């Protein structure tokens, strides 16, 4: 019969041991350690490891190491505690250095030593050291141990050596489900689903974790058929299993299948709703994101997490749903997300894209913690609003902070230079990317530079810049250059750009519209007519214009000739009356330029419906979002329209 602690160490030792077991405050730990030292118990083989564990649990690694270094002959248990603490803290190099020190001091490792060391070899990775540790484990006779064998299988799986992992698996005298899971994961990591599935079928009893691993592997390979077949075979399914398949549908091409699967789920948690909402966002169904989020709030007790709020904020940005974004801001402030960097970044982006740049600035200035995304969102937001000087000043502040700029940062900085017409500053920033920050410019950066040169009228420099690009220029680059040619009415270079665009995006009508305007401005009516004839032969038409209106926390989309709205008949009747009774003043040349009614059948109806959407927005004091900021609706006498409509509908004088 084992003796009690009291019999082994006495009352004081027992009390100190119990205090260390319960202690969670660092100040109390220091006091207990002082008592241990004062009473001459520092070399106690039971108290020292317990004290080190307590330090690791409070996150005070330095004190744990200081305690360890004071022990003259630390036992294997204390070495293991230190190895475990370093590994779990992600300090894998320190783990390997400590293990080397352990070997030099001839301390014999046990079966609990190797798993931590082997894991660190996998994580760095230090696979040559891992091979040495493997040999050492073989010499000590511990390779056949379940813990050590499982760790070795995991290490060789990370090395993508499934063959050696399987040899270790074969040599194990006994195997549990954890070992089987490790070898199956090794084959999955090597992309060998055939052998993984073969081993899976050999195992008589599977736990839920192994089922989920296999299903996830098939989903990542895009094989939803195999994933569904395995899911149907599962004897017991928890909510995580359902969420795994749901995420597969959400990432796939059929969002309808995701909706149907979500509907039959017996239980749902926040990750289930995240899966559906994320699926809608990935498929560009941003209105559905808001609708599902609203349904979750009113029909369940599930609280959103920061990942969900970020997706919802991003959808608000895409839709221009400012009221929704403001509500999310208020909700996050009152529900424990104050100071959350991810939510703060999402709010900056949302406010900037919804036209409220000053609200974005307020969020930025009140954030106590910032990361590179915070700076990027604010710099790009300022540049988007034409506040180039402020964006460049903020970039200078970023350089003075601890954050290093990345490629996205320079997209905003170069955009600011474009808005300000700062050619020299733009080139200096562009060159600094590679020379100072070791960032290879993306095609987006080259696009900004082409835009910068084009707006400055340096068209030949711009096309030379395009020709010297290290990657093939895409349609965005050539479209930017074509736009610059239009601004300076340069027909020859415009035709060069158009010849490239016809090969890259032959169906993009916008490019034909730009070139036709250039021909018209140059008085080249034959070319104008020829282009018009080509368009008619191709059957190319302009995409219908759309406007998004946020009413009572609901986003409604109006498109040209759209009849999907439940009250579309009433809308068109009011629209017809509206155009009869209102005094709408439109500069005809601008309308022709925007809608291109002379040669593309975009129709006045789309323009009128856009104006009607704007009218609803003004009447309800709400936000109207469009694909462009400088909407032509600014030419409308909106106040006069409102008064006439109010008088017509109510028979009363406007208030």
Automatic annotation (TrEMBL):
Keyword Repeat: yes
GO BP terms, alphabetized: RNA modification
Stored InterPro entries: E_motif (IPR046848), PPR_At4g14850-like_plant (IPR046960), PPR_rpt (IPR002885), TPR-like_helical_dom_sf (IPR011990)
Residues in PPR repeats: 75-109, 176-206, 207-241, 269-304, 371-405
Family annotation (Pfam families): E_motif, PPR, PPR_2
PROSITE patterns: PPR
Name of this chain's protein: Chlororespiratory reduction 4
């Amino acid at each position: 019969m084992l003796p009690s602690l009291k019999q082994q160490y006495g009352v004081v030792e027992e009390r100190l041991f119990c205090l260390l077991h319960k202690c969670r405050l660092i100040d109390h730990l220091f006091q207990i350690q002082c008592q241990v030292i004062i009473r001459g118990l520092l070399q106690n083989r039971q108290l020292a490891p317990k004290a080190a564990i307590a330090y690791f649990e409070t996150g005070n690694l330095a004190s744990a190491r200081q305690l360890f270094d004071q022990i003259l002959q630390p036992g294997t248990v204390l070495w293991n505690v230190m190895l475990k603490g370093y590994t779990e803290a992600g300090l894998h190099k320190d783990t390997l250095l400590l293990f080397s020190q352990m070997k030099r001091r001839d301390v014999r490792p046990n079966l609990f030593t190797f798993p931590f060391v082997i894991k660190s070899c996998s994580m760095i990775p230090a696979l040559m050291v891992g091979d040495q540790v493997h040999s050492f484990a073989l010499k000590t006779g511990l390779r056949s141990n379940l813990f050590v064998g499982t760790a070795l299988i995991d290490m060789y799986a990370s090395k993508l050596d499934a063959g050696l992992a399987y040899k270790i698996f074969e040599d194990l005298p006994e195997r549990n489900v954890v070992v089987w899971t490790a070898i199956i994961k090794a084959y999955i990591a090597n992309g060998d689903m055939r052998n993984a599935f073969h081993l899976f079928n050999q195992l008589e009893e599977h736990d839920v974790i192994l089922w989920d691993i296999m299903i996830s592997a098939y989903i990542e390979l895009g094989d939803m058929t195999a994933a569904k077949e395995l899911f149907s075979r599962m004897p017991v399914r928890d909510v995580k299993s359902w969420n795994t398949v749901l995420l597969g549908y959400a990432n796939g091409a059929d969002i309808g299948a995701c909706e149907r699967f979500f509907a039959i789920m017996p239980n749902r948690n926040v990750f289930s709703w995240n899966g559906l909402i994320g699926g809608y966002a990935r498929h560009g169904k941003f209105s559905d994101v808001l609708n599902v989020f609203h349904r979750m709030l009113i029909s369940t007790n599930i609280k959103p997490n920061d990942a969900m709020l970020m997706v919802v904020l991003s959808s608000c940005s895409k839709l221009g749903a400012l009221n929704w974004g403001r509500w999310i801001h208020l909700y996050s402030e009152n529900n424990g997300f104050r100071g959350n960097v991810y939510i703060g970044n999402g709010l900056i982006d949302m406010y900037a894209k919804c036209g409220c740049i000053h609200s974005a600035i307020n969020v930025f200035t009140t954030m106590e913690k910032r990361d590179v995304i915070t700076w990027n969102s604010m710099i790009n937001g300022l540049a988007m609003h034409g506040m180039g000087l402020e964006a460049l000043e903020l970039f200078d502040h970023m350089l003075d902070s601890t954050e290093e700029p990345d490629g996205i940062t320079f997209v905003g900085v170069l955009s600011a230079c474009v808005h300000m017409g700062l050619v020299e500053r733009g080139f200096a920033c562009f060159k600094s990317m590679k020379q100072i920050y070791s960032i290879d410019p993306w095609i987006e950066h080259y696009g900004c530079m082409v835009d910068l040169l084009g707006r400055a009228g340096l068209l030949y420099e711009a096309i030379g810049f395009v020709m010297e690009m290290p990657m093939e220029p895409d349609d965005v680059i050539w479209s930017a250059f074509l736009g610059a040619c239009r601004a300076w009415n340069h027909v020859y270079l415009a035709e060069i750009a158009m010849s490239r665009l016809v090969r890259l995006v032959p169906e993009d009508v916008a490019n034909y519209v730009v070139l036709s305007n250039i021909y018209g401005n140059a008085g080249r009516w034959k070319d104008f007519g020829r282009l018009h004839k080509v368009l008619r032969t191709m059957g190319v038409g302009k995409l219908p214009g759309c406007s998004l209106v946020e009413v009572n926390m609901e986003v409604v989309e109006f498109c040209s000739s759209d009849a999907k709205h439940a009250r579309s008949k009433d809308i068109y009747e009011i629209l017809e009356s509206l155009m009869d009774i209102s005094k709408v003043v439109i500069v005809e040349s601008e309308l022709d330029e925007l809608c291109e009614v002379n040669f593309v059948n975009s129709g006045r109806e789309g323009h009128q419906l856009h104006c009607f959407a704007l009218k609803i927005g003004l009447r309800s004091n709400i936000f109207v979002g469009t694909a462009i900021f400088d909407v032509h609706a600014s030419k409308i006498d909106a106040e006069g329209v409102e008064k006439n409509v109010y008088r017509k509908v109510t028979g009363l004088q406007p208030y």
